[in-house]
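Lab notebook page, bench 4
Experiment: in silico fold of construct C2
Operator: M.H.
Input chain length: 495 residues
Purpose: comparison with the prior construct
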Amino acid sequence: MTDEFGLFINGTWTSPAKAKRFETINPANGEPVGSFVSATREDVAKAIEAAHRAYPGWKETPAPQRGEILLRAAGYLRRHKKEIGQIVSREMGKVIAEGEGDVQEAIDFVEYMAGEGRRLLGETVPSELRSKFCMTIRQPKGVVACITPWNFPTAIPNWKIAAALICGNAVVFKPASNSARCAVEVIRAYEEAGVPPGVLNLVTGSGGVVGTALVTDPRVRAVSFTGGVESGRDVYVKGAQGLKMVHLELGGKNPVIVMEDADLRLALDGVLFGAFGTSGQRCTATSRLILHEKVYEPFLKMLTDRLDTFRLGDPVDPKTDMGPVASREQEEKILAYIEIGKKEAKLRYGGKKLRGGAYDKGFFIEPTIFETPHGTRISKEEIFGPVLSVIKVKDYDEAVRVANDVDYGLSSSIYTRDVNRAFRAMDDLEAGITYINAPTIGAEIQLPFGGVKNTGNGGREAGTAAIEEFTEVKTVFVDFSSKLQKAQIDAESAV
């Protein structure tokens, strides 16, 4: 029998009477992972009301005490890392090393945010007048909605939740429906850590119902969303109607540039991991390989030779190099793009759904490589799967032009031994993240994460930027002159 899970509202797990339910499915074998409540607008309203009532008390809790609770939540994740990693791999298909890595990233970030409870930095500046003190302080926004995707089902929720909580906000959390079991473990960590009732709430269900209810409720003052561009645009428009702060982390079409002087063996390892790790289902995945013409053929041969030994299969098996894509919907979308690619480019490797034996029960697609001119759909549109577009260029300037000529700007990379060219690339590449001699993976948790253009609306997560996302800055003036001072009017007499 499939395990059933409820909503978490006001500190209690609850399954409303006659609630509709949905199941999450193991993409490797089609078996159900868990059964979850399809929340209604009324359920969401209850969660928001619980957060609204809990917010004043949580705001008044000293930030270092909030940090102690976060530290205990990180301890729960650390103690249960292996079993939660198994849940990640079973529910969304990451190989087990990446499943546990997902949890480790959550641990790292929650611990980092716990320390911010003793900082939450403001600033002090001199006044233009005598006997006057000027400073800024940070205050929470209120009730915030955290809406997260399925591809990093413990890391990304904790990026948002831990940052929101340390700042003193109350949270209503809506995970992607096909990673709801992982979301349960996220909530359990904070529940065991002692987060007060109502401060953190979980509502599962569709974006059309749950997401819309969250974004349009006037008691929700901020929305943090990670997902696709079209969904993000819808969230942005709905949030703007309520003058909410809406933070968006959206898509990517990330390039790796390999120059003629690159260490090709190092670049090979990076491209394999960047393009086919997590089956290409990262917003930072390497989806474009821009090769200098002098290394084009040798490098492509090295790449395809390595793929011949790539092991696809059960993501829980430590020997597996690549697991399935996350769902039937993902599989259909990726296969449709592969068919588009076959019409507009040259298929160099892969390009098929795997069939036979255990593959028939899951959503397995071969690592796929297309040789393509720049400008085709597969070279410019986000596919979010194990599909790599390879583009030949003649020099550095052309490589940068090709890299920048897409609608996204999240992660970027260049492999070169030329230090001058590396520093030029740091400035020239239009992206929120640039790697030198490493693939387009994500950021370390102590540095900002985010991008430009259609990748988002300019904000950043992680690092100290996470605090900026979930706080308002208040400017404070303390005049201890015991007389009326008029700032600029008195400025000349104050000299």
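Observations: The CA atoms of residues 139 and 472 lie 5 Å apart. The longest strand covers residues 132-140.
Next step: discuss at group meeting.
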